[in-house]
Design brief:
This protein is mainly α and 679 residues long. Among the domains are: 205 residues, Serine Threonine Protein Phosphatase 5, Tetratricopeptide repeat (Alpha Horseshoe); 81 residues, Serine Threonine Protein Phosphatase 5, Tetratricopeptide repeat, CATH 1.25.40; 88 residues; 54 residues. 77% of the residues lie in helices and 0% in strands. It starts with a helix and ends in a 15-residue tail after the last helix. The N terminus and C terminus are likely disordered. It is found in: Nucleus. Its main location: nucleus. Keywords: mRNA processing, mRNA splicing, Nucleus, Repeat.
């Protein structure tokens, strides 16, 4: 006890106490989870989880890569693949994936914004600036997006050295970019004011940098700002009244207006006031459509109808630029609406007809709706109107053939449109180019024949293709042998088609080759054609000899076709006779013959079965059925007694009894007074 009390005053005891304290602390720690061990376990679990996620992500990437290699047209697959690569941080693969998708489809504004921001965060310097600027240019080409234009402008203002220095060249670059943005999106009622405001703020910033002593330069810049104000006030946009107040406040700073708080137009020139009133009226006429379109609670069908109503309103004002902006807004929200693209391109063909604008719209239309053959056909015609190069037209045509259309006639229309364009080129080209175009026409026809013949056998479409081919071989190529070869090839495919022979003969007659036409008649008059074709070819031969042949030729044709026509007439009569006999036999069938056999037996068995079931389960018989059962059982008992008395009756009487039994079993009532019980 003393030692225990004295222990604290001794050094060894102090050391011991310290050691004991550590042991106590360690003992207390043993009751709790060890921090280091827990952290290690958590870190290990986290590493395992990350490893599992990475493995799963790699598996998804491999699956998508395989799928896209076999089906590059899978839009959703491209989007998912890009998202996974962006999450994984694989920059090189991400770039290749984005480029691959961009070649096939227009990218959404959001995808372009992600792409440009990723590149801007990774790359710095002049080379990077040029590359990112090109990405923005591609992005604003695909769809109308005010936010993407604003990002583009902000990027250029921030990273273009000449603009940052406000050099004349840099200011000119910025102004050109602003004007392009206004042309594309400045008439956007809901968002166009963002570009206008940024443009005006840029010019106002320049105004602040001009030396006060340079009065002329200052005045020119003030007038430039005022011009932007006036232009903006003449456009129907949101927040027009706020814009008016901002303008008046700015004019107050310039000392031209005294009251900037009122919404009236006092102090503003009559021209500006008139333009503002007109713009405000236009905005009020459109605001209800803008509010409905901005709603997120409507279906795509309803949104499309709203845009169509909007387009009718804009077309009534006869301002093509405003109509085009609404179309661009609509296709941005509904990019795969084929009806919308068809309507848009028709409008451009009517109003603009030529120019890069039309061809660029067709390029985007065919990327968004590649399955619409009409878009490809009109795309080719648009390129031809715009005097595009043969290389460009050929590339579009070849790309169109890689698409899947709903009917073979659509492929035929594409081939014929391509041939039409080549034919028209010959009239305005030299002899050497004529030969090249003739060869290209022949190759196009050959390609069309190889592609369509297996599927369009004995059809009018294939006949039209070959007839056109033979016609051009004569008119352009001056090659009769080639034209005949075309028809001979057609007859190998459509030899049982009367119209094919008729067209061949018509070509020879048109060229004055009477003997050759007669030889074709001799080859085909005895062939069997569908419908009345067999008779028609015989009559055509006779008519041909009347018009072009000698008497001997007519007699020979008559000698050949007469037995053939008699044979065909006999065949027709036999067909009509067989058809008539079939109808008569059908009409002569009696109602009893039309009944199903064995129906009486079935009825008899059904009645007997009902009686048997009723006898076994009398409790189940109720109401009318019970009365019928009683009525039917009484005559059956009488019949049994009658059968005992007449045991010696002959077979005929037994048959009569059997017939009566059958009658009684039909739930009929028998009266005792009508029965003869004596032998």
């Amino acid at each position: 006890m003393d030692e225990t009390l004295a222990a604290p005053s001794e050094k060894p005891a102090a050391i011991t106490t310290g050691t004991a304290s550590e042991e106590v602390q360690n003992m207390n720690k043993e009751d709790e989870p060890m921090p280091d061990t827990e952290q290690n376990d958590t870190s290990s679990d986290s590493d395992e989880s990350d490893s599992d996620d990475e493995a799963q992500q790699n598996l998804q990437l491999q699956t998508l890569e395989t799928e896209l290699s076999t089906n590059p047209s899978n839009y959703d697959g491209h989007v998912q693949y890009i998202k996974l690569l962006r999450k994984a941080g694989d920059i090189e693969k991400l770039r290749r994936a984005r480029e691959a998708m961009s070649e096939l489809f227009p990218l959404s504004p959001t995808m372009w914004q992600e792409w440009t921001k990723d590149e801007a965060s990774l790359n710095k310097g002049p080379d990077a600036f040029s590359a990112i600027k090109k990405l923005y240019e591609r992005g604003v080409f695909d769809y109308l997006s005010v936010s993407l234009w604003c990002d583009y402008i902000t990027f250029v203002l921030e990273f273009d050295p000449s603009i940052r220095e406000l050099s004349p060249a840099g200011i000119s670059i910025a102004r050109d970019l602003f004007e392009r943005a206004l042309t594309a999106a400045g008439l956007h009622v809901a968002e166009g004011n963002k570009i206008w405001n940024t443009y005006r703020e840029f010019e106002q910033a320049i105004c602040l940098t001009i030396d006060e002593t340079d009065i002329q330069a200052k005045e020119r810049q003030i007038q430039r700002v005022r011009c932007i104000f006036h232009r903006q006030l003449s456009v129907p946009l949101v927040e027009m009244q706020s814009m008016l107040l901002a303008y008046k406040a700015w004019e107050v700073e310039q000392g031209n207006v005294h009251d900037s708080e009122s919404n009236d137009l006092d102090g503003i020139s009559s021209q500006v006031a008139s333009a503002y009133k007109k713009a405000l009226e236009m905005y009020n006429a459109r605001v209800h459509l803008e509010e409905k379109i901005a709603s997120q609670d409507i279906s795509d069908t309803e949104r499309l109808q709203l845009y169509m109503n909007y387009l009718k309103l804009e077309q009534s004002s006869a301002t093509p630029s405003r109509v085009q902006v609404v179309y661009e807004r609509a296709i941005t929200e509904l990019p795969i609406s084929s009806d919308l693209w068809l309507d848009y391109t028709r409008y451009l063909d009517r109003t603009l007809k030529v120019g890069n604008i039309v061809s660029s719209v067709y390029s985007r239309a065919t990327k968004n709706c590649p399955w619409i053959a009409e878009l490809w056909v009109r795309y080719l015609l648009s390129l031809e109107r715009g005097h595009a190069s043969e290389k460009e037209i050929a590339a579009v045509f070849e790309k169109s053939l890689l698409c899947t259309f709903s009917t073979l006639d659509e492929y035929l229309d594409l081939f014929l449109t391509r041939v039409d364009g080549l034919r028209r080129r010959i009239s305005s080209s030299g002899k050497i180019e004529d030969q090249l175009n003739n060869q290209m026409i022949r190759e196009t026809f050959k390609h069309a024949s190889d592609y369509l013949s297996p599927h369009l056998k004995n059809t009018e479409g294939l006949l039209r293709l070959y007839d056109y081919w033979a016609h051009l071989e004569i008119k352009l190529g001056k090659d009769l042998s080639a034209a005949r070869g075309v028809f001979e090839s057609l007859l190998k495919i459509c030899g049982s088609m009367f119209e094919a022979w008729k067209s061949y003969i018509a070509m020879e007659i048109e060229l004055g080759h009477i003997n050759e036409a007669r030889a074709i008649f001799k080859r085909c008059y005895s062939k069997r054609f569908p419908g009345t074709g067999s008779e028609d070819i015989c009559h055509s031969w006779l008519r041909f000899e009347r018009e072009f042949g000698m008497l001997e030729d007519f007699d020979h044709a008559l000698q050949k076709v007469t037995p053939r026509l008699e044979e065909l007439q006999l065949f027709r009569l036999q067909q009509e006779s067989n058809s008539t006999e079939g109808r008569e036999i059908s009409l002569k069938r009696t109602p009893r013959e039309k009944r199903k056999p064995g129906s009486d037996i079935t009825d008899e068995k059904s009645a007997a079965k009902r009686q048997k079931e009723a006898a076994q389960n009398p409790k189940k018989v109720q109401g009318k059925d019970k009365v019928q059962l009683q009525n039917s059982s009484e005559p059956m008992k009488v019949e049994e007694n009658h059968a005992k008395v007449n045991k010696t009756d002959n077979t005929t009487e037994k048959q009569s009894t059997s017939d009566k039994t059958r009658a009684y079993s039909d739930q009929c009532t028998a009266f005792m007074s009508n029965l003869n019980l004596q032998g």
